[in-house]
Amino acid sequence: MGNSSNTGYVLRVGIFFDGTANNTFNSQLGQALKAQGLRVDEGSSYEGIATNIARLHQCYPVQSSFDTTGKAVTSLYVSGIGTTTGKADTRFPAQTYGRGSTGVLGKAQEAHAQLNQCLTTFVQALAPHTLSRLQLDVFGFSRGAAAARHFINQINATDFAEHFALADDFTCQVCFVGLFDTVAAMGGLADLGDIGDDINLVLNLYLGPECAHQVVQLCARDEQRRNFALSRIAPQWPLDIALPGVHADVGGGYPMEMAEQVYLTRWHTNLVSPSTPLTMTRAWAVAETDLADWQRQDLLDPQDPSRLLEIRSESHRTGSRQDPMQRVQAAVFMQRRVLGHLSRVYLRIMHGLACDQGVPLRALTVAEADIPDELSAIAVSLEAQVRTGVIELSADQERLLRQRYIHCSANWNAGVGMGTGVMDQAFFNRPREGGRSVFDQPIPQSGWV
């Protein structure tokens, strides 16, 4: 092997950035603990389910040395924002504001360190100046997709020859970038902690037309949460496809079946005299109007025996003994069974798009790709349509997805307390009127990597 990229060694590395609070190793440990009858923290990475990032990572080959043709393939996994393998999750500031050592930028730095260690291992096994090409495939979900985009810009600005004995004409190429629903969600002093805007300061989300051979993003068409603003890759990269589902329907992480129990509206409140019947209050009247609106959304599967859409109410005495009052509250509540197989459709789609571009993923197993028969026709349609960028399903297919597979991620369930207070910050999953914000690619700024 000489010093030319035509004859030198080639190392291909897949790098997988998981989403906030997603950590496949902690998830495996959590499952083992639960099998022993032990408890894991609710909502933590130890309770989570493997995402599509974790599943794709399992499909990427891992070799420890170069083969007889001078090629090697390996993969790196970057755990989700706010997680560290084998340790407690970092709720603040990482999971809350996307900051800190396990925040978005911290995970980009972690990936860079992992890649440097990987290069060190493989280069040390070679004669000096014989590694001629480094090829990268990069995947990311949610804030992990934001970290992946920043990492790609870091890599494209890195001179690896400063640190490694590489071939004279060494090149680093980002071959394929596969993103699931980029959500940067970083809050800081500049935006007073608002994670629903596009003020991310030093985070570089811009993916220019020369940054990679191909970039694709599968976006959650039905995501409505204020704190989950989408960062697009269009117009520079046209395969920026909105697909049926919410954030984790696309990127994965939901169990294959769950009982969804959500408040669809915020609690409506008013003060009335103690003798006023609940159904005669303004709070109840507003909730009745809300209930009628939600009934028209057709979210309940007629075959689901657990389905429930109703007004829930509370009341308690307040005021003084001389001037007693009754505080009345009412909100719309929904309960239903929701299945998690839609994410497997998008796993299959991303897997296929990557393989089309030469990414060396092994085939998905039957278990990994398995979906209910009722989803098969939808999967076939979406797999074909995603390559054209035009997604169109029949009314019956949309109804099936809406009633059984698309989760209601936007809701008024309280993150703190009972949800009957006045602080919006307690409602992390609250919807944004008109749907979540969608931001085009940011214009590159001076000082960005």
Automatic annotation (TrEMBL):
<protein>
    <submittedName>
        <fullName>DUF2235 domain-containing protein</fullName>
    </submittedName>
</protein>
